[in-house]
């Protein structure tokens, strides 16, 4: 989440594509709207399938509060200062499997202190400094216990056929 | 690996920090030297501990060939076009546990075609487009089966104490 600090477009694009590839339904980017970024992500969805959506919201605080008012939402903030993933993922997975919706907040150093209090869980993907992109990937991978590798992305125009030595891409014609 | 294409410094920094936090020994960045990048990574090592090293090499082809000449090296290229991780990680893990050194190549769209042939394994972290940063994290996590969460980083000046609600950082004095 951006918070009066310049968002790095490339990093935000990586976050969005990881969210999609690892099984999230939607990304909400807070702060100033960037139509180029939205366009890039939508193009990936159009080409590679699935129903991942992307939107901007000016105010990160409202986004979190509205989600919490739904009373079915659990807010998870990924931060190197939180509880280490292996110590808490079981509890979060149970909530999720029990039908709770999860909102996962990433933003690295740009996250304001208030988020630590608004989050139901502050979760560390190792207590070392690294990358919100990697943190999101590892969280979603552990949450789903690797099931994201079996995700299907319907209505794709292109599909990769795994190849040990090069690139094989299937172009799917729709009539 | 950069290859006559502008490297994104922020993305390369994320790759380096993920490599360190998830247990790699060293990162070799190919292409043009960037002292600022080296400095940033070394500062993280100095502050947060461990012995992770970073260096530049102009020529990516030489780096790979020299590594392969050692005859104890296995070259793994992470690409969305490769064999999906769950189908190949067991074989790679066995090689690694058997004493082989692994070189992991990431670089996204910038990787020249020749790398697909030089690599012993082209591995896909899902066959969807996303991020070399996430790909590296997930590969190292699956390789070590989560053991990277128990890594120790000796000689740290700062250490995080996991905190469910805020930031707790231990400053370690050395006499």
Secondary-structure map:
Two copies of one chain form a homodimer.
Chain A: H1 9-21, E1 26-30, H2 35-48, E2 53-57, H3 60-69, E3 73-84, H4 89-97, E4 101-105, H5 114-118, E5 121-124, H6 132-144, E6 158-160, E7 169-171
Parallel strand pairs in A: 1-2, 3-4, 3-5
Antiparallel strand pairs in A: 6-7
Helix pairs in contact in A: 1-2, 1-6, 4-6
Structure in words:
Two copies of one chain form a homodimer. With 175 residues, chain A is of the alpha/beta class. Helices cover 37% and strands 21% of the residues of chain A. Chain A contains six helices and seven strands, in the order αβαβαβαβαβαββ. In chain A, the strands form three sheets. Chain A has a three-stranded parallel β-sheet. A two-stranded parallel sheet of chain A has the order 1-2. In chain A, helix 2 links the parallel strand 1 (26-30) and strand 2 (53-57). In chain A, helix 1 (9-21) runs parallel beside helix 2. Residues 1-6 of chain A have low confidence and may be disordered.
Strand elements of chain A, count: 7
Order of helices and strands of chain A: HEHEHEHEHEHEE
Structural class by SSE content of chain A: alpha/beta
**Distance between the ends of chain A:** 40 Å
User: What kind of assembly state do the chains in view correspond to?
Assistant: homodimer
Largest interface: A-B, 53 and 53 residues
| Fraction in helix of chain A | 25-40%
Average predicted local confidence, pLDDT of chain A: 93
Q: How large is the count of helical segments of chain A?
A: 6
Tertiary shape of chain A: globular
């Amino acid at each position: 989440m951006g918070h009066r600090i310049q968002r790095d477009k490339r990093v935000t694009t990586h976050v969005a594509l990881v969210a999609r590839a690892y099984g999230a339904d939607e990304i909400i980017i807070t702060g100033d709207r960037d139509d180029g970024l939205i366009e890039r992500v939508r193009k990936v969805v159009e080409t590679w399938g699935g129903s991942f959506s992307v939107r901007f919201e000016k105010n990160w605080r409202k986004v979190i509060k509205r989600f919490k008012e739904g009373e079915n939402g659990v807010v998870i903030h990924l931060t190197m200062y939180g509880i280490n993933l292996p110590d808490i993922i079981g509890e979060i997975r149970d909530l999720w499997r029990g039908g709770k919706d999860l909102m996962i907040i990433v933003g690295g150093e740009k996250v304001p202190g208030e988020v630590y209090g608004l989050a139901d869980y502050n979760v560390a993907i190792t207590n070392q400094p690294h990358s919100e992109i990697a943190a999101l990937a590892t969280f979603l991978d552990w949450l789903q216990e690797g099931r994201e590798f079996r995700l299907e992305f319907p209505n794709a125009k292109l599909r990769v056929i795994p190849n040990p030595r090069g690139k094989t891409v299937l172009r799917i014609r729709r009539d």
